[in-house]
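Just curious. Protein, please.
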Amino acid sequence: MITLKAIGVDGTIRRCDAKCYNAKGKKCHCICGGVNHSRGEEQAIYKSLIFEQSQLDECKLYRLEKQRKMQLQLFERHDELLKLAIIGKD
């Protein structure tokens, strides 16, 4: 049995387990938001792996964007310092 678990900032624990992916009813109130609901364990595992990979990709993209912003700030600062150095030589 697979169990997905998320712990919120406030300490609350939400989960998705066999009660969800083996459910017979239509309403889903767990962390998957209905993605795994009534799909069976194999589909729940597959969809969870896809979700996890998308989250990792999103984190990598965020890190790259943050790194790019920092580089731009450094280049801008470098240009400012270079201008000051040139003005100081005159």
